[in-house]
Prior knowledge:
Elements: H1 15-26, E1 43-50, E2 53-60, H2 68-80, H3 85-92, E3 102-104, H4 112-121, E4 124-125, H5 146-156, H6 160-164
Parallel strand pairs: 3-4
Antiparallel strand pairs: 1-2, 1-3
Helix pairs in contact: 1-4
Bound molecules: zinc ion.
Zinc ion binds next to α4.
Amino acid sequence: MSYSLRGPAAAKTGDWRDVVRKGFDSFDAQVGTTSADKSESCEAKIWYRQKRKWTHITGATGHGAGHAEMHALSQFITNICSNKVSKFRALQDEVENKSGVRVECESKPCCVYCSAILGLLGITPKDKDTKKSPDRMGSTQWGMTSSLRSFVSDVSDYPEAILAMIDGRV
Ligand SMILES: [Zn+2]
């Protein structure tokens, strides 16, 4: 899609906040309180079904993809889904209500941006111990790899240019 917000059209910069709000609201996790634990390190897992069994891919903070959730998600999208929306949809449909792709992050709530992206993709929390927070959480740079951003754009129909505005706002 050719779409640019550079130049005069930059008046649309407000849009990325609406995208974050919509994604955050649609991520079906309870809002958790941020613990006093200042530790930046965190592990997150993306769960999916393979050969009728649940399996997962693990991400960690600070591995070139910012937050652990985005690290796990980018590996999942690239290695498991081959960057194909159809493959992702098929995995979601493995379980009723399209919840065949789930996220587990129990050490602390998913930050507002991770929650938003997970929500836009329709990824659900593995269980009640995975929560979301309206906070940005810590100083670790938040970001998506370009292939993940492109994938989220394909699934959510939001232009990449708007999704790119979420990056670097921490
Ligand atoms: Zn996060």
